[in-house]
Amino acid sequence: MPVEGGSSSGSASAARHPKQKRKAHSLSIRRTNSTEDRPLGIQRGDMLEGQDSKLPLSLRNNLLDLFGQIEREFENLYIENLELRREIDSLNERLTGDGQIIEGGDPTKGALKTKASHSTSQLSQKLKTTYKASTSKIVSSFKATTGSRALCQLLKEYVGHRDGIWDLSVTRTQPVVLGTASADHSALLWSIETGKCLLRYAGHAGSVNSIKFHPTEQMALTASGDQTAHIWRYMVQLPAPQPPPDVSAPCDEDQDSSDREEGEVDGEGPFEVPTVRVATATLKSHQGVVIAADWLVGGRQVVTASWDRAANLYEVETSELVHTLTGHDQELTHCCTHPTQRLVVTSSRDTTFRLWDFRDPSIHSVNVFQGHTDTVTSAVFTVGDNVVSGSDDRTVKVWDLKNMRSPIATIRTDSAVNRISVSANQRIIALPHDNRQVRLFDMSGVRLARLPRSNRMGHRRMVCCTAWNEENQSCNLFTCGFDRQAIGWNINIPALLQEK
Fold it and tell me: Where is the signal peptide, in residue numbers (predicted)?
């Protein structure tokens, strides 16, 4: 960190030049004493008469006074710094005596770690007492994982976008491909097995903020910063599969990510791929950025969410606007449709999400849910009767559609949560975070794993979105971030559930 680097470099400089500092200090003392020993009639200017300077004598005297004040201020700061250092060392010794150590031996950049004999409640109480932390009763949902750890195998990295990737999705029809939506104004389709780019969509004039695939046809729906949503058809041919790489790591690995420069990626971009530039249908009714879009069950209608605080419902065949869903007080951030019913959930920066019911054509009811204290970044349906919402308030909440007055589970994290996803078969929640982590939880809020993030794998910028694919008796999780790449993971579900 810059602060740590500055502190350590300052200490190193002081260690390298102790003689120079003592010499300068002694010179300042001799200068002051010699001035005080002179008779009162002799002024500072008399000391400088022999020096060649064009400055007036009064100005030179003022400069001497100012430099003296600066020296005294630095001396006071130096003394205070020494006292603070002694206090930190004393606190470090007390914590060490209580069974706690400072990682790395440097109290300016270490993190507290406790011995295994201390319970979580004891450590929490010590931290609250020592650092005067908040005394509010917050129950952490994190559970320590011991014994055998589940394995998360890196499947493939998908590199080729020239800007951050906001969203990704997996097709629900054959052939199964991965789609990514990027701030570079394009959407790309990828071979999951080989990581090869198969097709580029370049019909938008702004950032592509989301991508969703038709439930039965080879059609894609993209939302963009150009205030439109596009429906376009694609045709791809999968290349011959390659053997998977032999790369595996424990899901709870604590290694830090690489410090490579932004945009420094491995592999080649999709320079020579088929490109689609014309949309089958263009949806134009919004007055602001279209941040998300999704297909309703059956694929005959789509819903879009915009920064103009409204969500629109369209007929796919005619591109006709059917309903405008208003009521949010601030910009919308996401929208999602139920997999089997005509239900829509919209999320907003106004800290709420709304459930829209279109099952009865004559009655379009809406319910407002106020369970978060900051922007609701996404809210998604599960295969069952649940809604899972994530927020910038660092929490994820699980709701029951039959009784949504209060959440049935709350997951508290250490970073803002972006676009979440829930696996259809095992109902595992994947949380992408601003701090580059991806964590897995079950529907009751129990932490199952954390994806590996090391020098060799993982995202180097914030993770924006996650998506599951549970085809062919395997469970793959895909993540994308603002480091311009998407990553595929093979999740060992039986090991995760056994660890639970």
Answer: none
